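#structure-requests
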Amino acid sequence: MENIKDKKNYEVMAQFYDQMMGDGKYQGWKKLIARVVKQHHIATGKCLDVACGTGNITKLLLELGFRVVGVDISAEMVRLAQEKFPQENFVCADVRDFTLSDELRQGITLAVSFYDSLNYLLTDQDMLHAFQSVYRNLPSGTIFLFDMNTVAHVKAAQRYHPRVLEGKNFYSVYRFGGEGRFWTLNIDIFVKTSGSYRLAREQHTERGYDKKDILPLLQQVGFKPLAVEEEFKTYEDGIEHLSRLYFVVQKA
């Protein structure tokens, strides 16, 4: 598997991604974005949506008054996002190495990445390259807001019990594993076609990162850290762990 969201993984899952992910966290993220925008007096111009997926964060950004330029490695995810929001601009590219045209870069006032998308980068070098790519596509002074699953989250999630999710025209089985900093999610997707089911299998791997891992990489690129917010969650083990970090950084 590539050290990023594997575009092959999302050829099938992309069709059902919105149902599989649910909408439980999105309104909280919308409030967070709005608060950061207000706190840092960010003009509502264009927002760069890094690892945009099918455009669920794009929807929030549009509701907040931004136009959106989305980047994702999965052509199918980009196709679905473009279909949802035909007036916005979506680019199929690897977040570790992308360069937007001058026209698309013009007017960007904010960059975001959510739903632990950057946790699919499994090495420090890949994370560094992603930060470098975001940095070079932003005007000076632009804020970059992103989230990150922690090492504590990964270790707790490795022990999740298997889960089954049934949706429209599919059902899926989730099996969890991994060790150390790495969390593996195996998904069997049963897709209903003409009265029968077709099986598709995907494997997703995330790496957990903590502040001490991320901050030096950001500073090496040239981002100035402004804030790191913490989110806690009670897991299946009944223990509350530091689940997610939110980084607010600024291009020098």
